Structures are given as structure tokens and as C-alpha cells.
Amino acid sequence: MSYELFFTQREQVEHPDYTEFVAYFQDRKNYLLEDNHAHYQNVDSGIYFYFEFDESLPERDKDEPLEEAGYILIPIVFSIHLFRPHVFALEAADELQAFIDHFELHVVDPQSDGMGEGLFSREGFLQSWSHSNAFAVEAICQQHPEHPFPCTAAATIKKWWRWNVDRERYEHSLEGEAYVPKFNFIWFEEQVCSAVIWGDAGPVALPEVDYVILVKHEIRDDFREGDEPEVVLLPWQAVYVWCERYGHRVDGETDHWLIEYPAIPDDLKAWWLSVSGPHDFKIMTLDQVLDAEIVAMYLETNAE
User: Fold this and answer.
1) Model confidence pLDDT, tens digit, residues 156-166
2) CB 220, CB 273: distance < 8 Å
3) Contact 23/8 with Cβ under 8 angstroms?
């Protein structure tokens, strides 16, 4: 299931052609141009969607004239999946606004309870996508009432999405003194949990999560090139003592611990090499986790 948005422009202006489409996206961060598509893929946040240049669009819709006088459809369409957490739309809204402002466009939103024809608004898009997304969640929940849909609170998803979006900027500000890991959701003991990866006890900015995934690789005394890393899952409480000993707490939008040292302390290394924990967990992609509030709404409705 997908959400599509179409674009219009004043009749008297020169409309963007494929060359301008490519020129706009080719140097824009997180985009990959492939054939007539500009695919957005943010590897840090896990968000993706695309714009498509489709020459057949204006011809295809001639039998359905626009209601907005003086505007015509242009051959570009935006598409984003449904049955996704709400942050997909939040990240897409900024890209849509920039694209629309650059080419001075209006929109055609064919979704039920959508924006209709005219000016784009961030709030209108978020409402339109959220309505369509809720419909998709309801439909799939009805089709698979016994299926365990991984989900967590929308506020939790938004909090960690913001951390991931800002991760690169924050790491750059530390000037190489510490690594800023990407946040992950994991599936462990039949539930969605928060986690980050801490590799080889290196200096790190560590947010307070449910679990920390420790990686033992080059830290091992017997390490050889080509060796497979060992991965151990530990609850936050097991790692917290090292945060207090070698780090300091940084309060902000996402509270975390900044752990820095010129060389790995001997006691931390000894613990790191000896500690054990479960391995039966799965790192999830963001599109595998839904807003719990929406899932609960429709599962409760189906149970009545």
C-alpha cells in the first residue's frame, strides 16, 4: 500500500523536464537516481520514499480536468509506503516542502480526506498521510487478527528517529573523539526493545536504551584479520557502571553518556572479554515497527 501525491504548475510557466528533475536530485543528500526515479534512502534513520518522472501522467489524466483554474499536471509523482511508523511522513514532509518550493508547485492529493488541489502544507500532508496509514493498518489488522505486529509507543519511535537523524552532525561535532552509534529497535523475548551497538569498547556517545549490543572483535588479544566478531546482548544496567566510571552524562533532547579515554582501560577490557549474554535477538529495520497506539486501536476494535 502506498500514498501518492501529484504536482501542478501554472500553465504559462515552463515546466520542469527530465534534465531539471535529475539536476535537482543528483547532488541532494540521501538520493539515488535510477532510471526515471529519485530514491530517497536515509541509512541512519531508515526512512525511504521516491519521486518518479512519468511522462504519461499529464496525458493519462486529461479526461479528469483539474479543479484549480490556471494549473496543469506535471509529469512527476511522489510515493511513500503506508503501514509504517509516523516518522516516515515527518521526514518526507521536509523533502516535499523543499521540492515544491524549488519548482513553485501546487499539489493534487487524491487520498480520501486529503489536501485536494492547491497549496501544499506540511500539516495537511501529515494529516492526509496519517489518515491513509491508519486505514492501511486497520485493513491489515483485520486480515491478520492473530498476527503479532511489532510496535512501540509513537513518542519512543520519534525520540530515536531524531537521534538517528542528528547522529552524523553530532559525531562531527565531537571531532573524532567518540563514535555516535545509530539507534536500533530489536526483537527480543517477543517484544520490541531499544538498543545501540558498542564496538570493541571504543569511546562512544551512549544513549540510555533497554539493551546494549557489545561487539568483541579487534579488542581480542588473539584477533586475526578475517575473524568473525562475537556479539553479546546486555541490559542497560550491566553497562551503566562503566558509563559512571569513565563517562559523563549529557542532558539534552536525548540524554546520553559520553565515554572518552585515550586508551581502553584495563578493567573495562577485562570485563568486555569475559562478559557473556544472549544472542537470540533480531535487529529490526524501522519499517518493521509500528506506532503502538494505532495498532492497539484496531486490534481492540477487532476483538469486540
Assistant:
1) 999 999 999 99
2) yes
3) no
SS3 category, 90: helix
For residue range 205-247, list pLDDT tens digits in order: 999 999 999 999 999 989 888 899 999 999 999 999 999 999 9
Rounded CA-CA distance 248/242 in Å is 10
Helix, strand or coil, per DSSP, at residue 106: strand
Q: For residues 148 and 190, is the Cβ–Cβ distance under 8 A? A: yes
- Output the DSSP codes for 151-209: EE-HHHHHHHHHHHHHHHHHHHHTTTSSB-PPEEEEEETTEEEEEEEEETT--EEEE--
Residue 85: CB atoms within 10 A of its CB come to 26
Report d(CA 86, CA 289) in Å as an integer.
10
> Which of 283, 27, 44 has its CA nearest to residue 172?
44
Domain segments of the chain as ranges: 2-143, 152-284
The grid coordinates listed for 25 are 536530485
Nearest to 204 by CA among 185, 182, 183, 181: 181
Spell out the residues 6+ positions from residue 98 whose beta carbon is closer than 8 angstroms to its own: none
Question: CA 179 → CA 163, 168, 169, 185, 242, distances in Å?
Answer: 13, 10, 12, 19, 16
Q: Which amino acid is at 58?
A: P
Which residue shows C-alpha cell 536504551?
209
Which pLDDT does position 243 carry in this prediction?
97
Question: 3-state SS string over 226-287?
Answer: CCCCEEEEEEHHHHHHHHHHHEEEECCCCCEEEECCCCCCHHHHHHHHHCCCCCCCEEECHH
For residue 194, the cross-strand partners are: 185
